[in-house]
TrEMBL record:
Name listed for the protein in its UniProt record: Small ribosomal subunit protein uS17
CDD domains per the UniProt record, alphabetical: Ribosomal_uS17
Annotated family: Belongs to the universal ribosomal protein uS17 family.
Organism of provenance: Leptospira ryugenii
Keywords of the record: Ribonucleoprotein, Ribosomal protein, RNA-binding, rRNA-binding
InterPro entries: NA-bd_OB-fold (IPR012340), Ribosomal_uS17 (IPR000266), Ribosomal_uS17_bact/chlr (IPR019984), Ribosomal_uS17_CS (IPR019979)
Pfam families, alphabetized: Ribosomal_S17 (PF00366)
Length: 89
C-alpha cells in the first residue's frame, strides 16, 4: 500500500536542443492543451536545464528527466533515461 504523504516524482519528456555546457543539457518541452473557451489547441514550449552526469546526451536525443533538489540556480532536473538517440544524417 502506498504512503499517502509520499511525494509523486514529476517526470518530463523533451528533445535536447543544446549540449554545449559541461554536465548540462537544455531540453525543449512541448505542452499542448485545449483552450477552455475557444476549444482550439494551444502549444506551449518551455526550455529546461537538465543535469547529465556522464555527458551522454547529444542534440536531437529524446530524453526523460525527473525533478530533484536544486542542483544550481537553474537546474532542478536530472537525466533519468534516453528514450531515442538522434539520427545521424
Amino acid at each position: 500500500m502506498e504512503d499517502k504523504n509520499a511525494k509523486k516524482s514529476l517526470t518530463i519528456q523533451g528533445v535536447v536542443v543544446s549540449d554545449s555546457m559541461d554536465k548540462t543539457v537544455v531540453i525543449e518541452v512541448i505542452t499542448r492543451k485545449v483552450h477552455p473557451r475557444f476549444k482550439k489547441i494551444m502549444t506551449k514550449t518551455s526550455r529546461v536545464k537538465v543535469h547529465d552526469e556522464k555527458n551522454e546526451c547529444q542534440v536531437g536525443d529524446r530524453i526523460v528527466a525527473v525533478e530533484t533538489r536544486p542542483l544550481s540556480k537553474q537546474k532542478h532536473h536530472k537525466l533519468l533515461k534516453v528514450l531515442e538517440k538522434a539520427k545521424l544524417v
